Amino acid sequence: MILDVDNLTIRFPFGRELRPVVRGVSFQVAPGEILGVVGESGCGKSITNLAVLGLLPPGAQVTADRFALCGQDLLAVGRRDWPTVRGSKVAMIFQNPMSALNPSLTIGTQLIESVRKADPALGRRQREARAIELLEQVGIGAAALRLKSYPHELSGGMAQRAMIAMALASRPALLIADEPTTALDVTIQAQILDLLDRLRRDNGMSVILVSHDIGVVQQYADRIQVMYSGEIVETGPIGQVTQTPSHPYTRALLQSLPGRVGARPKTPLVTIRGMVPPIELAIEGCRFASRCDRAEAQCQDRPPVARRTADSWVRCHL
Ligand SMILES: Nc1ncnc2c1ncn2[C@@H]1O[C@H](COP(=O)(O)OP(=O)(O)OP(=O)(O)O)[C@@H](O)[C@H]1O
Ligand SMILES: [Mg+2]
């Protein structure tokens, strides 16, 4: 496994006490696989990924029965060693490429610096050649010229490609793409997602693709993980989960998808009533119960345990 997570809990300081915000999540990412992560805003998707990158805010506490990236125990990584993990095993691209690029430095300067960090032994010429190769890999034409461009001279899609090139510099086994296309228009979004899909095939890289949009995940991911208020409520192969969702929350997310597969024309879009409870709030029963149409007494009283089949599971009483 590239990423192997068992019973990961993340606690944040609230005043003088630590409260869990991500509760006992377990998941794995296989080599070359795209794991799609969905869930409404505030469900803990980003926090979970930031833990894999060692980028949680100071004061956060991470515990797990297993938390391993390419066999390395992430719980044992010290503050000084995280840059090495990020520079060799895992890289991340963010929602807004423009804010992640330094506006006052050319793409070349920034990309060549990523190359230098990844391969300190390369000489100046070789670094530049590798930077050009990376830009070509992400589909940026006239790469040698582009090295001289400043971020503001690039379109949003082009800037995201440049960010992906920087992420690839270290040949990561795992690329975490957190809402990589939310800031882009629909055509460019498809191009970037196609690019990620091609890169994982060509490079055998695994991808965690985080999105609000279950439609995007449906199209690109091999497996899906549905998060709700700091927990994983359902996970499994993409076809199985989207065609026969078991958790009422997964069903609701699928029903709120515009143009959803199999929907009759003019079927009204469903919105999920109510709101995600604050992630740090302690709740006795199922965290989704207050919004669930099918909730029974037991749902309010005690948390559901996960029911497993071969390669999927769901956390629901019903
Ligand atoms: N440093 C922090 N201290 C305390 N609480 C935090 C901190 N960072 C995030 N949170 C809480 O954790 C919640 C979940 O955050 P997270 O960013 O993981 O959500 P998300 O699922 O990625 O949402 P979105 O889809 O909006 O990106 C936030 O809504 C916030 O309440
Ligand atoms: Mg997020």
From TrEMBL:
Keywords: ATP-binding, Cell membrane, Membrane, Nucleotide-binding, Transport. Residues 3-254 form the ABC transporter domain. InterPro entries: AAA+_ATPase, ABC_Ni/Peptide_Import, ABC_transporter-like_ATP-bd, ABC_transporter-like_CS, Oligopep_ABC_C, P-loop_NTPase. It comes from the Bacteria. It is a peripheral membrane protein. Gene3D superfamilies: P-loop containing nucleotide triphosphate hydrolases. It is found in: Cell inner membrane. One of its GO terms (molecular function) is ATP binding. Its main location: membrane. Pfam families: ABC_tran, oligo_HPY. NCBIfam families: oligo_HPY. Belongs to the ABC transporter superfamily. This is ABC transporter ATP-binding protein.
